[in-house]
Amino acid sequence: MTKPGQDTAAPSARPLRDPADPRALARRRTRWPPAWRAGLCLALGVAVATAAILLAGLSLWTAVLIALLLVCPATMVWAYVMGMRPLPFPLGAAPETRGVTLGWLAPYYDDLCWAFGIGRSFRDRTLAIAGLRRGERVLDVGCGTGVLTRRAAAVVGPGGSAYGIDPAPDMIRIALLSEAAEVSGARFELAAVENIPIGQGSVDVVLVSFVLHCLPEDLKRSGLGEIRRVLRPGGRVLVVDLDRPQGALARLLARLALRHAYMAEHLQGHMPDLLREAGFVRIARAETWRGLVAFWTAENPV
Ligand SMILES: C[S@@+](CC[C@H](N)C(=O)[O-])C[C@H]1O[C@@H](n2cnc3c(N)ncnc32)[C@H](O)[C@@H]1O
């Protein structure tokens, strides 16, 4: 059964962005400068601006703040200009969402993750905790640049399917370009958790990695409901997100983040309540990471 008025195709049934020859597209691909270079430029810009402002006699924190205020808009404009460049395939219209989409961060996103320790081994651990197996159909909600989706595609193999959705064109653009350059079998589409464009019960596993804290409180709830709709009975969801902080540093960081309403529920440890309210069962915190991030597993009742 599908939602009325909705595109009914299951992820395995519909070629979403299916270029005839992805390698040919990769050759035609407009090259991004390596994102690590962009991150380095940003750090260098902030360092130089901070030094200059320090020399002008301001305190360190004022200098850092002013430097960020100067450098960040410049990088956002740069990212915007890069984002305007044509893709070798159509992207479609961005869906409306009340979530925070972070599109401006897309060119640096993977390297920022890496800098924070969210690299390949973190992604592999995520998939291991999700218990992903060959042949499974997996949906990555809020897939960002698609790193996790593409690794999931490798785990499930050609007999399964990995499908990533995100409402930010800049994120999906990078996901598609990476996929065209190095084919994993993952498919990507511009879509939001408000309206996931697949049929009821059509996936075995849903990954929701660092997404829920980008959503307002009511959207966290309706989004989890929508995730349950697309999960088959007995299907699994894995939520990776901020959690009640453990340890001094984590508590300090959380104090700053608590000011943001979207993050508060996570930092107060309400994730199991959110999953329970959405109707999930067998809810468990499988692991915590650096005292601030938790991996939550849960199941759609049979
Ligand atoms: C911090 S990033 C996480 C990306 C990726 N899942 C990861 O683990 O690195 C949050 C992502 O959630 C996406 N997002 C924001 N609102 C959303 C919504 N309503 N539905 C789905 N994704 C959303 C953003 O565009 C962004 O790419």
The outline comes out as: globular
* Major β-sheet annotation: 7 strands, mixed
Average pLDDT level: 82
Structural class of the helices, strands and pairings?
Answer: alpha/beta
CATH class of the largest domain: Alpha Beta
Number of helices: 11
Helix and strand sequence: HHHHHEHEHEEHEHHHEE
Kindly state the number of beta strands.
7
In what order do the strands lie side by side in the largest sheet? 3-2-1-4-5-7-6
Gyration radius (Cα, Å) is 20 Å
- As a percent range, the share of strand residues is 15-25%
- CATH homologous superfamily title of the largest domain: Vaccinia Virus protein VP39
What is the helical fraction, as a range of percent? 40-55%
What molecules are bound to this protein? S-adenosylmethionine
Low-confidence stretches: 1-34
By oligomeric state, this entry counts as single chain
Level-2 CATH architecture of the largest domain: 3-Layer(aba) Sandwich
Gap from first CA to last CA: 16 Å
What's the CATH topology name of the largest domain?
Answer: Rossmann fold
Strand and helix map with partners:
Blueprint: H1 22-28, H2 35-55, H3 60-83, H4 106-115, H5 120-130, E1 137-141, H6 147-156, E2 161-166, H7 169-181, E3 187-190, E4 203-209, H8 217-230, E5 231-242, H9 248-257, H10 261-267, H11 271-277, E6 281-289, E7 293-299
Parallel strand pairs: 1-2, 1-4, 2-3, 4-5
Antiparallel strand pairs: 5-7, 6-7
Helix pairs in contact: 1-7, 2-3, 2-4, 5-6
This protein binds S-adenosylmethionine.
Structure description:
The protein is α/β, with parallel strands linked by helices and 302 residues long. It is built from eleven helices and seven strands. It has a seven-stranded mixed beta sheet with strand order 3-2-1-4-5-7-6, sandwiched between helices. It is globular, with a radius of gyration of 20 Å. The two termini are 16 Å apart. The N terminus is likely disordered. S-adenosylmethionine binds next to loops.
